[in-house]
Amino acid sequence: MSELPNCPKCQSEYTYEDRGLLICPECAHEWTAEEAAKAEEASIIRDANGNELNDGDSVTVIKDLKVKGSSLVVKVGTKVKNIRLVDGDHDIDCKIDGIGAMKLKSEFVKKS
């Protein structure tokens, strides 16, 4: 079976290739292979040093972070275990000891 990517618009797995274009028969979306490669590269989440992050990794905070709506601060050097990657502006979902569940931006952490 071919290894064509799912449709970026509707996530259909029934895509096919026609003269250099990838086409989705369900929503009629058309895109090129280069666009698909760029979208896949953009979806990779990287830390402040450029290392790729994955679910379950441990990271270290590299900057004091104020917790919005609270007087708490996540200090530099705080280790966060077992992260979960999510879509959005704050792309790391985690639990920090003493603070609780939080969302972090990947640009403020480094892989441990």
TrEMBL record:
SUPFAM superfamilies: Prokaryotic SH3-related domain (SSF82057), Zinc beta-ribbon (SSF57783). Residues 45-111 form the Protein YjdM C-terminal domain. Residues 3-32 form the Protein YjdM N-terminal domain. Belongs to the YjdM family. This is Protein YjdM. Gene3D superfamilies: 2.20.25.10, SH3 Domains. Pfam families: YjdM (PF03831), Zn_Ribbon_YjdM (PF08274). NCBIfam families: phnA (TIGR00686). Coiled coil: none annotated.
